[in-house]
Design brief:
heterotrimer; A: 276 residues; mainly alpha; C: 382 residues; 9-stranded mixed beta sheet; 47% helix
């Protein structure tokens, strides 16, 4: 198009300005604040204290995010795969109608649901006891890291599945048909034909999902009082109970580093896509 | 295996999946009408609407919180679209320098864990008297929702056939007129999707409001959180149901607008 | 047509605002830390009562959340307004915990008012003059006194432990049947940790009464290590209400709770009426919460009237004791005449006044308060 570049930049400017003021400026504060010590000088004291107090929480957060992402990916591929390759139209329709429901349910409501669902004598265990599958004395509460992962998967899998199913649906069916005519089994088609073609949308969705999960405060706060917990909870605690911005920002810096790892994967994917 | 027998494993898996999806929601429904529920009872010992009365009482804050939440969400949508429509159009139609970088920049609020940012925004807002105000919360929600708005708007404008615009220009329409009569209406479904995403993100937003809004601005999610932490599961379940209604309505609406072609263009 | 509409709209707005101005209302802002019951106390009981007695005044209650975090929020707000040099602040009455009250007085954020309210002489306890070692005389009036005790389910616990020693043993034999909220989400857990440290540290009186000594920090390290062992067999709940909730749903059989929340939940049908309390030896802490008036409160005079009403014997009897099961803020002898004997005795159903007097402890003073919690994070929770 022959529209002037200057005009184009002018149109983008207001949005960028809002972003600069209300995101990048506090972000800079956060990054810098991690290094400002209690005495006023610069140094790594905040990091020392952060790891001293919350080292296990950092590891815990990483494990939860990774496990959740793997589980979400598995579920999304399974559901998307069935929707694309499944033979029974009724089953496909039912599945398609079912999986979307948690999509628009906010984390905080998901946390509230799961809090009473996953408890030792909550709905889930009660159902199994009522069906005779479990003895009342053996019920186990899931209100710890497992509950956090279950809640994340419950909430995020529909979003990733939507992206994956959409991408799969937009694929050229001829490659799939060709493989089927050659006699390939559907599972093989899924992993060797379909999956490679949707790698980029899958990666984008998983990365967005992972970073979203890293920002969530409501789920670990409401579900698990256990230690260790996610570092978002500790950041909030540090600020609200003690006004300790130093350690809170240090923890924030750590979570940026974790997100950077994911961002690196995203950039790798898009660069590969463009150079293909 | 005959087709009928195949339905046994299918049905079991589907039923299990349905229970996984709906079980927590059903639980929420039960809590909202449970007046007394002690262990070891599997179901409430007393059913009733007593807590509904409590939530909707005149001194109760549920209705106030709901209208506050909706107001903030609407303002966020307006601000977001006002910023995103020109930006999205420019990204779709103009060969901007550093286009990829600009797109990535908008991804930043979603790509970075936002909690540390909220903490520092709240601190900055204190100094400018923006903490605990509707404007403050709207600004925070807008920043977070810009990525949806800009990316989806860019994708929506990209999907508009340039030949239609060319045709209009060829018969003498000005650029502005073409935009308002051809481009915008064609991009509208995509823009509506963006609006819906932004609205829902704002309505359900908790963490930012927790730091920037509380305690004066008590949005419905904050009210729900407080009730839940205080152990009032009935009240938090009822407010959760209230909060869910707009989400479910929009989910039905968005089924119509969410086309695969628009989706795959996101991130391009 | 459009012009007419615009004129009509303008007229409507003008009329609306003038009506508003005619019935000019003063709104006082009461900001309270603590659980939801603190806010409910004002929105459901005290606020409407004050509004009836003072037409033209509206009471706005805002809750900042449980634990010291809630009080800290209030401090932040006052501090921010002072730093911005605002002449009149938007908080008229605040209800805060002891540590924050001490800090606020030290930093000059509050004004003296106790001498100017008629009910000021009705409280003679130490807690009205000292907040964990800090001198707050004249700046505060206790709203209530509360006490932590161990709640237990008699159907699951035949003989409850009577001391911290017995508790330690019981938990070892009954893993994951005891729960508390750590040091986050509410003071009942924090209080339990303090009680543990008192019970397991020689020379613990120094922690309660001072003087502060930075070197004393070493003395409670063994106690922390024992607590770490203890924690292996317990459930950590999300907060004050979380413990009561877990008790109610059979997830735990025992846990530290605020006695007032316990009794209130039972009265409201939210907690199984069979549950009981035990105040274990050597004791558990309790705390008052204080009414304070910020230095530059916009409506200081109305604020004082509000506090006078809140600390009057009738309101203390009806609101604090009868409705919310707290121990009164003002001296008991002023409150008792306004209650039937059985209502007063309800407060002591499970724990007698003698036991309360013997085993009710104050929270740790001064820097000990913060240091014990930090060491919990460092040595126990990490």
């Amino acid at each position: 198009m022959s529209e002037s570049r200057a005009f184009g930049l002018l149109l983008v400017a207001p949005a960028l300005a809002v972003l600069a003021l209300f995101f990048m400026y506090p972000l800079g504060f956060s990054l810098a604040g991690a290094f400002v010590e209690r005495g006023g000088g610069l140094g790594l004291d905040n990091f020392h204290r952060a790891f001293d107090l919350y080292g296990s929480d950092v590891g815990f957060t990483a494990v939860i995010i990774v496990l959740s992402t793997i589980a979400i990916a598995a579920m999304a591929i399974a559901i998307g795969g069935y929707l694309t390759l499944g033979r029974n139209a009724t089953a496909r329709a039912i599945l398609s109608a079912l999986y979307r429901w948690p999509l628009f349910i906010p984390f905080i409501i998901a946390a509230q649901c799961m809090r009473t669902f996953l408890a030792k004598n909550g709905f889930m265990n009660n159902t199994w006891v009522a069906m005779g599958l479990l003895d009342p004395a053996d019920t186990v509460g899931f209100l710890d890291w497992r509950g956090i992962i279950i809640t994340f998967v419950w909430k995020q899998a529909p979003f990733v599945t939507l992206m994956v199913a959409g991408a799969m649906a937009a694929l050229d069916r001829s490659t799939i048909e060709a493989a089927r005519n050659l006699g390939a089994r559907r599972l093989r088609i899924l992993f060797e034909i379909v999956l490679p073609q949707i790698r980029t949308p899958l990666a984008v969705a998983l990365i967005l999902s992972a970073v979203t999960m890293m920002s969530v405060l409501s789920v670990p706060l409401m579900l698990s009082g256990q230690s260790p917990t996610m570092i978002t909870v500790q950041m909030a605690h540090r600020i609200q109970a003690m006004g300790d911005y130093g350690v809170a920002n240090a923890l924030g810096f750590v979570s940026y580093m974790m997100a950077a790892v994911f961002a690196w994967f995203y950039l790798r994917e898009t660069v590969k896509e463009r150079t293909r | 295996m005959t087709p009928a027998l195949l339905w046994i494993p299918r049905a079991i898996l589907l039923a299990l999946f349905a229970w996984f999806i709906f079980g927590p929601l059903a639980n929420l429904l039960i809590w909202s009408v449970a007046e007394a529920w002690f262990w070891p009872n599997k179901l409430p010992s007393q059913w009733g609407f007593r807590f509904w009365e409590q939530v909707f009482r005149p001194t109760g804050r549920a209705m106030e919180s709901l209208s506050l939440s909706i107001l903030i969400a609407l303002l966020t949508v307006v601000l977001c679209l006002a910023l995103a429509i020109p930006a999205g159009w420019a990204l779709a139609r103009v060969r901007l320098p550093f286009r990829a970088v600009i797109m990535l920049v908008f991804l930043m609020p979603q790509a970075f864990p936002s909690l540390p940012v909220y903490i520092n925004i709240a601190r900055a807002f204190y100094e400018y008297g923006l903490n605990g105000t509707i404007l403050g919360v709207v600004l925070v929600h807008t920043t977070h929702g810009l990525v949806y708005a800009v990316w989806i708007a860019a994708a929506a404008f990209s999907a508009v056939d340039r030949e239609l615009e060319q045709a209009a220009r060829n018969i003498g329409a000005t650029a502005t007129r073409t935009f308002f009569t051809i481009t915008l209406p064609l991009a509208l479904p995509g823009l509506l999707v963006a609006a819906i995403f932004v609205f829902l993100e704002s309505l359900d937003e908790f963490t930012g409001s927790f730091f920037v809004g509380a305690p004066d601005i008590q949005t419905l999610p904050l009210l729900m959180f407080t009730a839940s932490m205080a152990g009032s599961y009935q009240i938090s379940s009822i407010t959760a149901l209230i909060l869910l209604v707009p989400s479910l309505v929009f989910m039905v609406l968005v089924q119509r607008f969410l086309k695969p072609e628009v989706l795959t263009k996101i991130g391009a | 047509m459009r012009k007419t509409l615009a004129l009509l709209l303008g007229a409507a707005i003008a009329t609306g605002t003038s009506i508003g101005a005619a019935t000019a209302q003063v709104t006082i802002n009461v900001i309270t830390a603590g659980d939801q019951n603190m806010v409910d106390y004002i929105t459901d009981y005290l606020g409407p009562m004050f509004e009836r007695q003072n037409p033209g005044v509206r009471v706005r209650a805002v809750g900042t959340g449980p634990g010291d975090a809630g009080s800290h929020r209030i401090w932040e707000r006052l501090n921010a307004q002072r730093q911005a040099n605002q002449p009149r602040w938007d908080v008229d009455v605040a209800v805060v915990h002891q540590t924050m009250a001490g800090q606020m007085v030290r930093e000059g954020l509050l004004q003296r008012y106790r001498a100017d309210v008629p009910t000021g002489t009705l409280v003679t306890r130490d807690t009205a003059r000292l907040a964990l070692g800090a001198d707050v005389d004249g700046f505060v009036m206790p709203m209530f006194h509360s006490q932590i005790a161990i709640a237990y389910n008699p159907q699951m616990v035949a003989t409850p432990p009577r001391s911290f020693q017995e508790l330690e043993q019981w938990v070892r034999q009954n893993p994951r049947r005891f729960g508390y909220n750590g040091i986050r989400g509410g003071m009942s857990g924090v209080g339990f940790v303090f009680g543990w440290v008192y019970a397991n540290t020689p020379g613990a009186e120094r922690l309660m009464n001072g003087p502060y000594d930075a070197n004393f920090r070493q003395a409670w390290v063994p106690a922390m290590q024992r607590l770490r062992e203890f924690n292996r067999n317990v459930v950590i709940t999300p907060g004050n209400a979380g413990t009561l909730d877990a008790l109610n749903r059979g997830e735990i059989a025992m846990g530290p709770v605020w006695m007032d929340m316990f009794y209130t939940w039972q009265a409201e049908g939210r907690l199984n009426p069979n549950m009981r309390l035990e105040l274990i030896a050597p004791g558990l802490p309790g705390q008052p919460m204080y009414y304070v008036v910020p230095e530059r409160a916009a409506n200081a005079e109305i604020a004082r009237r509000f506090i006078a009403l809140a600390t009057s014997p009738q309101v203390q009897a009806e609101g604090i004791v009868r409705r919310f099961n707290w121990l009164p803020g003002i001296d008991a002898q002023h409150v008792q005449p306004h209650l039937e004997a059985q209502v007063w005795q309800r407060l002591f159903r499970d724990v007698s006044p003698q036991t309360l007097a013997q085993r009710g402890q104050p929270m740790p003073m001064g820097n000990f308060f913060r240091e014990i919690q930090e060491d919990y994070e460092r040595l126990v929770a990490n």
